[in-house]
Amino acid sequence: MRLDRVWMILGMACVTYILRFLPMALFTKWTVPERLRWGLEYIPVAVLSAIVFPILFFDGGGSLSLQPRALFAALPVFALARFVRSIWGCVILGMAIYWGVGFVL
Amino acid sequence: MDDRPFREGMKAATPIVLGYLPVALAFGVLARGAGLSPLEVGLMSLLVYAGSSQFVAVEMMSNGMVWFPIVLTTFFLNLRYLLMSSTFSLYFNKTPLRTLALLSAQLTDESFALAMADPSKIASRPSYVFGLQIPPQLAWVAGTVVGAFFGGLINQEGFGIPFALPSLLICLLVLQIKSSIHLGMMILAGILSLLFRWALPGNWYIVLAAVTTACAGAVIEMLRRRE
Q1: Which of A15, B58, B137, B210 could pair covalently with A46 via S-S, beta carbons 3.0-4.6 A apart?
Q2: In a mutagenesis test of the B interface, which of A7, A20, A85 is the best target, namely the one with the most B β-carbons within 10 Å?
Q3: Rounded to 10 degrees, what is the CA torsion of B92, B96, B100, B102?
Q4: Between B75, B92, B185, which is nearest A42 by CB?
């Protein structure tokens, strides 16, 4: 294995591990301040939203535009998740519509 | 030892496993194309285990970049783990640190989101979380190595496969909307992520949108308590 590849893989592994482990190590030993705890309550919804929205409104090259294929598939998935709360149902419905819309668009 | 929580976690993890496999195959193909050997692909998937930063690393390698800028980019791209790990930590203050040292190595967007869909299942139950996180990591490592060997033979664009993980994430996002404030925070974070993605270079948008939204949430909570 080439040495620069070793550095790349180990370096990526180290920085990623520090980011994953550091808060776990600190916050489980210290008492988390109340205001920080209030903010952390919204981290799951905020992170997920910040990952999902750009998928629907950015193309692969990084320009802002409606992504009709992703949007057509995403809206029914939003509705299904809201009313049925089935993870499997959502994955299958989303894939099926995305696949189907690919033939039309 | 009681292995029921572990098995319960494994069962819950199956949508993630199936969502990861096609993405893993695609990564294996690209990484091989950029010059990584199947061994290097497997090591990277096992040790780094962070899909989006692995794709970016391979892209940078194809453009002839060396290891240091790639590692630096990985750091910034994965800053969101600081936020997820912070939230996760609230549920494990009785768990020994050496257990958390292993558990946090396997944290991903998907396992975090699935765990947070019902935090009562993860609170002080590390074996459930191991069950939730080990199968996806194995699937990721195995899938990327298979992709590096045979990926060219598989059509990863068919059957709506590219939309499997987005569908999973959308469902988990909806499960997070527990109140009208959560709904507002979803919309705020969504709009901010689009704005930051459009206005700023690099991949700052997830972290910036999430931190701003969490601060807004904390302020709202503070105002509610004052009333």
Answers
A1: B210
A2: A20
A3: -150
A4: B185
SS3 of residue B214 by DSSP = helix
Instruction: Tell how far CA B206 is from the center of its chain.
Output: 12
Separation between Cα atoms, residue A49 and residue B113, nearest integer Å: 11
CA dist B189 and A48 (Å) reads 9
What residue spans define the domains of chain A? 1-30, 43-104
Give the pLDDT confidence of B195-223 residue by residue, as tens digits.
Answer: 999 998 877 788 899 999 999 999 999 99
What's the whole-model pTM score? 0.82
Chain B interface includes A99 (CB < 8 A) = yes
User: What is the Cα–Cα distance from B41 to B99, expressed in whole angstroms?
Assistant: 27
Q: Dump pLDDT digits (tens) for B87-136.
A: 999 999 889 999 999 999 999 999 999 999 999 999 989 999 999 999 99
DSSP B204: -
Return d(Cα A105, Cα A68) in angstroms, integer.
8
ipTM: 0.89
**B131 in helix, strand or coil?**
helix
C-alpha B173, offset from chain centre: 13
